[in-house]
Amino acid sequence: MQSPSLHVLIPMFELHTWKTSLSCTEREINHMVMIWQGVLAALHLLITGDPEVMGITLLTLEISGTGTLISLLIGVPFGTLLALKPFPGRRFVLSIVNTGMGLPPVVVGLWVSIFLWRSGPLGFLNIMYTPTAIIIAQAIIASPIIAALTCAALQQTDPKLRLQIRALGATRFQYTWLLLKEVRFSLFAAIIAGFGAIVSEIGASMAVGGNIQGQTRVLTTATVLEVSKGNFDIAIALSIILCLLAYGATLGLTLLQQKQQGGP
After folding, report:
1. What is the DSSP letter of 101?
2. What confidence tens digit (pLDDT) does each residue in 56-95 have?
3. Which pTM was predicted?
4. Helices 51-84 and 184-199 sit at what angle, rounded to 10 degrees?
5. What is the assigned CATH class of domain 51-261?
6. What is the 3-state secondary structure (H, E, C) of 207-262?
7. Helix 4-48, helix 232-261: angle, nearest 10
8. Which H or E element spans position 87?
9. I need a labelling partner for 230 at 20 to 30 A (CA). Which of 1, 95, 125, 246 fits?
């Protein structure tokens, strides 16, 4: 025979379980509503062409595009040198470059900040908390990626092709150009990887840019700001715009790559 206390505890336990289940369901519904509100906010911002959001988006594209271009000018020649020019310590340098592919953006932001502070070695440039500072940091992040992928692509070229080019009497410049042309599809992939790495980073942009409205605020830093303010719908909207921007840029490069390859 059960004690009276058990008769009381069992209904209370069932009530608590029901309330907990209801609470979990409410939280899930609230989360779905918040996500849906973020999607609607993104559509509204895109359709209406909100000036602030459009300015942030264009600034993001400008900074990341310039950073990718600079890293391309640095990474391709350096990767070509590592792949084609034997020199003492090349393996060590290559290991450093490969390590740089996983370089944390916040570490890059820290060291760039140290150099660009007014008391730093490059403080006289007065570019701290400007788009130029973010471009420098992002170029440092992307350069090892492009250099390492360029080096890997060139090292995988057919040795017989190299001998054939040399046998035809090609100059050093012609030899290098023909090899780069041979691996051009891999170079497009390197550009896509470099752009993807810097357009999505936040640590360096926050450290050297300061997230100043109208000057250095990009999509990643704006998203973090809205999250800290509790505006999750706006944060979701900005994150969707950022993904669309990254997809649009990489889609353009991919189409160009496939066009060069002659594919569908």
Report:
1. T
2. 989 999 999 999 999 999 999 999 999 998 889 999 999 9
3. 0.82
4. 140
5. mainly alpha
6. HHHCCCCCCCCCHHHHHHHHHHHCCHHHHHHHHHHHHHHHHHHHHHHHHHHHHHHC
7. 60
8. none
9. 246
